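Entry:
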Amino acid sequence: MWHEYGAMDRSEGEYPRKSRAARVRKPLTPAALDELAVAYVARFATSAKALERYCRRKLRERGWEGQDEGAAPPDVAALVSRFVEKRYVDDGEYARVKTGSLLRRGYGARRVGAALDQAGIAGEDRHEIAEGEKRHAALRMAEKRRFGPFGAQGAPADDRAVREKQVAAMIRAGHALDAARELVDAPDQDTARDWAHALDEEE
């Protein structure tokens, strides 16, 4: 019936597919890699190290013009240096924004440090996290996860094992042990918040 009404028979090739070779993208030239890097930094907040990793990954995936003839790959280090000079990439600004974002989400200083390590941010581009900022982040985590007095009962869990699990979760999120215990064991929400805000005027 399908043939009678002129319906296409896909098995006969009426829907031609591009060959695998036609779908393969061209090897990268320095200019093409530069365009990819510009698009990347325009789309994502990134660090110099992350940009370098991205460019090298693209070269591994697509290769570069003249590779089969022994040509050297595009100079990724020079590209990244140029982007840093033009302030397309700013590790100090990246560290500031990333730190603030993680703290606002309730993560602690160790988690922030790990994220900056992963991004390749050097020590001089980081700012020290004040004790008050650490306390505020810990409070946000406790409120978000309903730990300690922020649970349904409005008081710390009666079960010690439950409290220890909450402390462990806060430590995994990058908070210090003493801060985790202060919040998980706080008798009520006001006490927890008073502890978190105690250093506000000092800083």
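Residues 1-15 have pLDDT under 50 and may be disordered.
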